Amino acid sequence: MTTRIAFTAANATVAQTARAALTGRYGNVPLEEADVIVALGGDGFMLDTLHATQHLGAPVYGMNRGTVGFLMNEYSEIDLPRRLYEAEDEVINPLAMTAHLKDGTVAEALAINEVSILRAGPQAAKLRIYVDGRLRLDTLVCDGALVATPAGSTAYNYSAHGPILPIGSDVLALTAVAAFRPRRWRGALLPKTAHVQFEVLEPEKRPVMADADGKSHRDVVTVDVRSDPAVQHRILFDPGHGLEERLISEQFT
């Protein structure tokens, strides 16, 4: 059976060149008609592609034409249909963010990697954290905090010294970014079903922004974060190089 492939690529010249070469070799169908979507770029473009195609049933297979490429496979123009046929399917659920802004508006977004709460001015943010409606941390003075999925645990979360989470662990990482008070608080591991709420203290003096996979909203006063099991993203990886293996390998480098 012929695999119908839709190619999508980042704006970078190297990605566009790869798209031209692959479409010339394997053809190209509209996204809505594809059995598989092949994304050419880096991790940021992969996230954009997953968000843009979440309403479609086709899985996404990434090939690295960017910088990091943690979510991507190695680039090759050879025998792509075979690679797609043999690829392993990983299913991940995004985080759903609901942010209430100072002007009364409400912003909603989905995040495959993480939802970040970050200071938006010269002074540190001051946050109060609830988990499942229960007050867990009365005051966190910090540059920010984030909730990360296992898929996103090696991204910003890892840079902020958060834990790497194995795929399938059904946990989320709650990680502080440059915590000042409590100085030694490094965060927490929470069940995937947890509902996390951040309350911004002194929002006029200490403005805060919320970010979901690069989509930012300023002047937030409360931010709710929870996993959304109704949304499933399918990512394809070459055998032996799936997210599970990558997460384990990352801890030994």
From TrEMBL:
UniProt main location, coarse: cytoplasm
Localization per Swiss-Prot or TrEMBL: Cytoplasm
Coiled-coil residue spans: none
A single MF term (Gene Ontology): NAD+ kinase activity
Top-level EC class: transferase
Residues annotated as the enzyme's active site: 43 (proton acceptor)
Cofactor (UniProt): a divalent metal cation
InterPro entries in the record: ATP-NAD_kinase_N, ATP-NAD_kinase_PpnK-typ_C, NAD/diacylglycerol_kinase_sf, NADK
Keywords: ATP-binding, Cytoplasm, Kinase, NAD, NADP, Nucleotide-binding, Transferase
Purpose of the protein: Involved in the regulation of the intracellular balance of NAD and NADP, and is a key enzyme in the biosynthesis of NADP. Catalyzes specifically the phosphorylation on 2'-hydroxyl of the adenosine moiety of NAD to yield NADP.
Protein name as annotated: NAD kinase
Source species: Aliishimia ponticola
Organismal lineage: Bacteria, Pseudomonadati, Pseudomonadota, Alphaproteobacteria, Rhodobacterales
Chain's gene name: nadK
